[in-house]
Amino acid sequence: DDVEGQTAVTNSVLKSGQLGEVEMRGSTWKAFNKSSQTFQRGEPVLVTGRKGLTLVVGSLLDAEKANSVNR
Question: Which helix (H) or strand (E) holds 67?
């Protein structure tokens, strides 16, 4: 089950470099914020990978900027 590229929503404040929880596809997942940004509760984030049962997440805006540069 490939989760990379999916969108999840934070369950609480998720600080840079910290673990927290996100909701994705109706399930709660542990998540690690690899972004330099802090995400507020309810904010959408991009799943960039998975390590075991922990999702690695980052900013949707960073991904959109990268995609627009690569076009």
Answer: helix 60-69
Q: With CA atoms as reference, report the closest residue to 34 among 14, 61, 52.
A: 14
State pLDDT tens for residues 11-32.
Answer: 999 999 999 999 999 999 999 9
- 57: its two tokens: 């997440």
Round to whole Å and give the CA distance between 15 and 1.
27
- Please name the residue ranges forming H helices in the chain: 60-69
Name the pTM for this structure: 0.86
Report the alpha-carbon distance of residue 47 to residue 58 in Å, rounded: 7
The answer to whether the beta carbons of residues 3 and 27 sit under 8 Å apart is no
